Amino acid sequence: MTPPEIQQYPKIILFDGVCVLCTGWSKFVLKRDTQQQFVMATVQSPVGQRLLSWLEMPLDEFETMIYLEKGQCYTHLEAFLKIIQHFAWPWRVLLILKRIPRRYQDKLYCFVASRRYRWFGKRQRCFIPSVEQRAQILQD
Q1: Residue 4's pLDDT is what?
Q2: What Pfam families does the record tag this protein with (predicted)?
Q3: Which of 128, 123, 136, 140 has the alpha carbon at shortest distance from 31?
Q4: Peptide bond connecting 10 to the previous residue in cis, omega within 30 degrees of 0
Q5: In the chain, what are the domains?
């Protein structure tokens, strides 16, 4: 059965709420999402866990950001690029990364993802949104 969030929100980003890099990315997106087209959930939240379960993805190991657009799942660098395409200039220049062959895109993404805690750190508790951000954060 499709989770209600999939039907209610056309653009959902799932991110690791204890990862400093991932949390920074989510804040970056929220700041530039002036039309509030994205909603987000941490993978550790009940909503995130429900969506991961529906996608048949691990519930305790988070190796990639997940972007769901109209129920279609995107991961790794492809998710990043799908999100970036909704941004204005100059951020859209990052779409040049599409020219990298897909297998290398995923290797590049996994290289950074596997080192993200070591390079950027890990929080003791999940991301807590500001008052302004709460409208775009899915919570149970």
Answers
A1: 84
A2: DCC1-like
A3: 136
A4: no
A5: 4-121 (3.40.30)
